[in-house]
Amino acid sequence: MGLQEVLIASGNAKKIREIRGLLAPLSVRVLTSDEVGPLPEVIEDAPTFAGNAAKKAHETACATGRWCLADDSGLEVEALDGAPGVLSARFAGEHGDDAANNEKLLTLLEGKAPEQRGARFVCALALANPEGEVIAQFEGSAEGQILDAPRGSGDFGYDPLFLFTEEGHDQTGQGFAELAPEAKSAISHRGRALKKFIHHLAALEVS
Length: 207
Fold this sequence. Notes:
Layout lengths: L4 E4 L4 H11 L5 E3 L1 H4 L12 H16 L3 E10 L20 H11 L9 E11 L5 E13 L15 E3 L16 H7 L1 H13 L6
Parallel strand pairs: 1-2, 1-3
Antiparallel strand pairs: 3-4, 4-5, 5-6
């Protein structure tokens, strides 16, 4: 029997909306805290995206007794030695303050030429069974560079500052915040990680 439902181990409304959209074509019911009640507060103290995703999936599954899919993602900037990395959401101090995070990033990169602004988004996913065992992990990334000013109408995280530069795509040369949701999901770090998850579902059996 295939996976019937999965709980998204996140309280981030923008992230949940993106994941829901990508999983919409599947027969899997996507649950959030709106359906199951408050989720545990997980301290994200692992040094890697994969470690944090696994910790969130494990703790949320143990607390709820449900299949859980957890995401940890962020931005790695070459000129900043990979920062903000796992601290992406709280780069400026307060968790989830996108405007402050973007402002700090622009300040740190002030005066840098485009070729010094290389960056990539990374998304790590972890799937845990109702007993809390992490049974699968997936990762996706998207290469680009940091703009010197925000572009586009999207306001999710660092999207207004991220220019997608991978060659061979219709989206090449466009900012993440300029793309329609479907166009962004086709090449985004989260979209790529979720595609791996979707492929995994085809072979997954639940006892």
